[in-house]
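Re: [ENG-882] Designed sequences occasionally contain unexpected residues at chain ends

Forwarding the minimal case from QA. Structure tokens:
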């Protein structure tokens, strides 16, 4: 276990996980708020909303996984190389499952959500 304020980390992860469950509401607001007669604007709003949902959903999944790791005691250790993750990375991105080195070497499809 690393020397960070775990209570604060856990609270942040729970907040992120809960934010992910509110996604349908966000989607409705973004899409439903547009003028239905303006298709171009509607499509753009929908694209933005879908991207928002994608990022929030990914982050929520990562936060839930991090909470699982907190529960089973493996939190704070890189999933790839099993090196302790730097405390400042945990504080900046508590949902991060990998150390900065493995994160940079891995595929970057979730880079927006996990960038620290
Ligand atoms: Zn690593």
């Amino acid at each position: 276990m690393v020397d960070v304020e775990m209570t604060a980390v856990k609270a942040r992860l729970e907040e992120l996980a809960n934010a992910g469950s509110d996604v349908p509401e966000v989607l409705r607001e973004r899409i439903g708020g547009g003028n239905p007669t303006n298709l171009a604007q509607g499509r753009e709003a929908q694209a933005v909303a879908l991207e928002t949902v994608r990022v929030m959903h990914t982050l929520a999944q990562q936060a839930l996984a991090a909470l699982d790791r907190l529960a089973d005691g493996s939190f704070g250790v890189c999933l790839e190389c099993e090196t302790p993750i730097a405390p400042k990375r945990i504080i900046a991105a508590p949902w991060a499952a990998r150390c900065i080195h493995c994160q940079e070497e891995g595929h970057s499809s979730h880079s927006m959500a996990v960038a620290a």
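QA comment: On inspection the terminal residues look reasonable. The first helix runs from residue 6 to 21. Proposing we downgrade this to a documentation issue.
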